[in-house]
Every structure is written in structure tokens, then in C-alpha cells.
Design the sequence.
């Protein structure tokens, strides 16, 4: 009979395996509760967003992406609460409802190329990566951008390309884009982003200053280049930062 000391590691491995399974099941349950809260918020704001439910593909992506991997370790117990959370450097990971709504407004499809301004923790990029072919994401805070790049690769999101820089001028060498999402508030819609949006494309951007009422805006570019801008609902985002042309009160990457 083997000595007891040689059996202990087996027991420990079994216990760890059970613990990991329980934890995974707990995350899944918490994600489902988050989905239900998002659905409730959609119904409550239906008068603003003109719909009672979001695209099923978007909701399925929200149910797959492990949000707990995108928040600081000490905040993981709160990862699936329907609220923004701090991620360091004065930045936040957006409320799940807002992430789902902004994604839905973009109408992402397989084959689409999407530009994101403000990588943050990488959560919005991961959601988009579940729904499109390529995601290009720019972050102005180098520490956040570098951490997000490592995190996204570790989680298998190989169709996301990140870089550190000022997003006001977009990513010209990869343009045009089928969709553009800006995840922090801008004083105006940056003209370079309009020019990099493909005809038939959509942009979602919060517009307004830090101490002003911000509005989530949907910009649609017709095939002839004509723009339609629609106000969706009031929001609160951290401001975009970076070098601005004269007269621009705030835009860039988070």
C-alpha cells in the first residue's frame, strides 16, 4: 500500500478540480443573471432605443465572454453586476447593458471590420470579436493597452489587433471600417472617423463633456456618403483624451 503522503497530492488535485468546476458553474450562473438584468434594462429603456429586445447574437456573445477576466482580481465577485467597474488609471469597464446596446446598434456581422476607440480592459473588443471577422482597437493609456493585448490573446481572441495611440485620427491604414465604436465621451464626432467609416457603415459614440449631459449617438453613413445622426439616450462616460485640433473640446482614445 503506498504511503499516505503519496496519496495527498491526488486528493488535492481532485479537490481543485471540483473547486474549478464549481467556480465555472458559478460564473455561468452569474452571467445568466447579468443577461436577465440587461433584458430588463432594455425593456425599461425601450422608449429611447425603439426596441423591446436586442439582437440574439449580441446577447449570446454577452453570455459567452468571461467578464470576470476583464476586471481587477479584487473586483471579480462583482464582475457580472450590471454596472461599470474601475479598471485603474481613472478608467472603467462599461456597464454590461451599455456594452450590449452599443454592440447592437452597430449591427455587427461576420465579415465586418470594426474599429474601437478606447480598448480599456478589452471587454468590448472581445464582444465584437465574437461577432465579426476583425477588430482594431486603440488605447491611449499604454499600461491598459498592453495589458488588454496580452489578455485578449490569452483568452483566444486572435482576431483582435490592438495598438497604443491617440484614437482621434482613427486607424487610417486599416480603413475603411464597417462599424466604429467609441467607448468614451467626445466633444464632437471626430471628422477622421467619419471619413474612415465605410458607406453603409455605422458609428456609435457618446457625445458631450465631462460635466455635461452626454448623449449616445448613432451615426449612419449612406451609400452616397450622406450622414444621418440619431440621439439614442443619455449616458455617462469617462472623457476621451489626446491631442485635439483647435476648437475640439475632447476626443481621442481613453
Sequence:
Amino acid at each position: 500500500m503506498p504511503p499516505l503522503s503519496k496519496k495527498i497530492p491526488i486528493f488535492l488535485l481532485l479537490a481543485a478540480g471540483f473547486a474549478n468546476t464549481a467556480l465555472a458553474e458559478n460564473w455561468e450562473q452569474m452571467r445568466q443573471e447579468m443577461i436577465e438584468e440587461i433584458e430588463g434594462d432594455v425593456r425599461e429603456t425601450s422608449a429611447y432605443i425603439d426596441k423591446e429586445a436586442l439582437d440574439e447574437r449580441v446577447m449570446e456573445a454577452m453570455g459567452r465572454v468571461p467578464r470576470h477576466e476583464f476586471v481587477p482580481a479584487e473586483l471579480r465577485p462583482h464582475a457580472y453586476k450590471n454596472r461599470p467597474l474601475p479598471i485603474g488609471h481613472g478608467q472603467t469597464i462599461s456597464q454590461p447593458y451599455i456594452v450590449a446596446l452599443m454592440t447592437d446598434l452597430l449591427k455587427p456581422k461576420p465579415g465586418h471590420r470594426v474599429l474601437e476607440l478606447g480598448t480599456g480592459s478589452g471587454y468590448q473588443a472581445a464582444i465584437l470579436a465574437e461577432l465579426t471577422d476583425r477588430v482594431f482597437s486603440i488605447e491611449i493609456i499604454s499600461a491598459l493597452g498592453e495589458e488588454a493585448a496580452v489578455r485578449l490573446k490569452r483568452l483566444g481572441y486572435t482576431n483582435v489587433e490592438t495598438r497604443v495611440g491617440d484614437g482621434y485620427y482613427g486607424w487610417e491604414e486599416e480603413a475603411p471600417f464597417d462599424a466604429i465604436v467609441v467607448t468614451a465621451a467626445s466633444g464632437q464626432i471626430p471628422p477622421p472617423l467619419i471619413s474612415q467609416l465605410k458607406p453603409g457603415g455605422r458609428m456609435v459614440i457618446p457625445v458631450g463633456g465631462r460635466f455635461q449631459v452626454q448623449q449616445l449617438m448613432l451615426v449612419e453613413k449612406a451609400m452616397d456618403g450622406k450622414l444621418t445622426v440619431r440621439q439614442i439616450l443619455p449616458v455617462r462616460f469617462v472623457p476621451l483624451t489626446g491631442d485635439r485640433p483647435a476648437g475640439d473640446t475632447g476626443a481621442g482614445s481613453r
About this structure: The chain has one domain: 4-235. Residues 4-44 form the longest helix (41 residues). Residues 4-235 form a domain with the Rossmann fold fold (CATH 3.40.50.150). Confidence is low (pLDDT under 50) at residues 1-6, 11-19, 249-254.
